[in-house]
Amino acid sequence: MNTLLSYLTFDAVGSWNLWRNLFGFDEQETAGDIVFFWLFELFIVGSTMYWAWYWAQYIPRISDIVLPLGMANYIDVSFMFNGTLPYVNAALISGLAVLGLLRVHRYAYMAAFLLLHLQFASRYVLGEIPHSSNVLGMAVLGFALALIVFQRAAHRRKFVLGYNYFFIGLGYTLAGFCKLIGTGIFWSDGRHLWMWIHEKGIDAFAKFGVLEFNWLQEAALNSFSVATLFLTIGLLSELAAVLMWWRPLRTPVVLAVIGLHIGIYLVMGIMFSITFAILILLALPWARWIDAVLPDAWAQRIRERAHAAPPADTRATRAPQAAGAERA
Amino acid sequence: MSASSARKRARRTLVGTLLVYGLLVATHLGEFWPFSIYPMFSQGGNDWSRAVVRTVPDTLSPDWQTATEAEQLPGTGFPLTEHGIDPIDLSNYVSKTETWTPARTNGLRTMFGAEAEQHTFLVMRVNGTITQHDSVVVEYVPYALVRDGGVNLNPSLPRPTADTTTPP
Question: DSSP 3-state assignment of B130?
Fold first, then answer.
């Protein structure tokens, strides 16, 4: 246990160069890195399927477009409102995601990503602009670009993880700046939180039919200072998120963002479950923990297997380069 | 491919994505899934508007009067999530509708699906404001009575005039 806990320290790379901190292409991969990536990819593929089917179930309830988003600004997505097309699209997305996972075709993830965008644009036309699936969408796009741009599996793996840290950090910091631009430095005024707690209380009332506040909400509603403190901590966590681009700061910064989500859940009742799960995967040193528990013989076999076969789709078209390619 | 050329490709791909990201959010009010500037909760202290639904007796003839306490509401709370309706969708549908055209009114009925064949619903818009004395005031405004047979709208809601009427 002490060995495992000792890995919960800053993961230093010995350099502040952004690209080295994000990608580390010249560093040796361990079996734990490879296994962790497989699990991460499996999680993203599974989540993509889940959302595609989840949205498909809701789309037939829609009959009118209130606010078009994404590609719905350019094409009339009402053709998706019949009973079967959303399910056909979900099946296509699932199939393409599996093809991408199995490395059958290097454009499979990109096609899945574009169809997932169509599914999203068909589902969210009623005025809601949700952000619960944005991090997942960026992750799918990262996998899609990795398969198209890189030949070597190790490069793909490192690109995907660096890409995710980059855009997750950027997203939270943008959110912080939006608050400073939208309201100014007094965004942290506790009275703002009172309004949002009541607003989210009404949402819960609509969801469950019961109107009540928990102890943390009551604490914020009863004290201007407590409410202001909550908002100040939240704003600072968002503004600092971009620091996760640098590895020495990554673990504490991602943990702070996870803390921000726990706070948002307790005070506002909002939980972005898929974003939260991705953050948990990216915050903790899973690869080091896997290395610590993996027998040496298994680790050896995993490294050999990961470096054995070239990606199927590159064999025919890129034979010369594929000679040194690996199985991602 | 060497580590340095991989780094160059990664940098180009990242910067390319960033440019597309910036272009799309700049031209689409900050949102083009999965790209976003994440503007949620950026406007502190603004008034808000949501929606709640009450299950009411079939015989109810609403007086369309605004209430200020949840205890004053007619009927019982209808838990939207349990019945597969997204409360945020409903809130947006109610609050962002400026003119209640027949198509928009039918859309409200469609959201309730088969549930409206078994129950009568009172859809209420809920408005929140903060007073000068730093207290939050919540108002419940009845908007529509949804039945199997159709939708009765609050008479004060804006309807299409002869000039703005469009076919459903």
Answer: strand
Distance CA A183, CA A178 (A): 8
pLDDT tens sequence across B4-44:
899 999 999 999 999 999 999 999 999 999 999 999 999 99
Measured in angstroms, the CA of A137 and the nearest CA of chain B are apart by: 5
Residue B110 sits at φ, ψ, to 5 deg, of -60, -35
**Residue whose structure tokens are 């943390």:** A216
Q: How far is CA A258 from the centre of its chain?
A: 12
- What's the burial of A293, exposed, middle or buried (CB within 10 Å: 0-12/13-18/19+)? exposed
Work out the burial of residue A7: count CB atoms within 10 Å of its CB; fewer than 13 is exposed, 13-18 middle, 19 or more buried.
Answer: middle
In chain A, positions 179-238, which contact chain B (CB-CB < 8 Å)? 179, 181-183, 186-187, 189, 191-192, 194-196, 198-199, 202-203, 205-211, 224
Measuring CA to CA, how many Å separate A183 from each of A65, A220, A251? Answer: 30, 20, 30
Decide if pLDDT at A115 tops 70.
Answer: yes
CA distance A168 to A174: 10
B33 touching A, CB under 8 A?
yes
Query: Looking at the complex, does the CB of residue B89 fall below 8 Å from at least one CB of chain A?
Result: yes
Q: How far is A199 from chain B (nearest CA, A)?
A: 7
Residue (of A14, A8, A34, A20) closest to A326 by Cα position: A34
- The residue type of A175 is A
Residue-wise pLDDT tens digits, A161-177: 999 999 999 999 999 99
Q: How many CB atoms lie within 10 A of CB B40?
A: 14
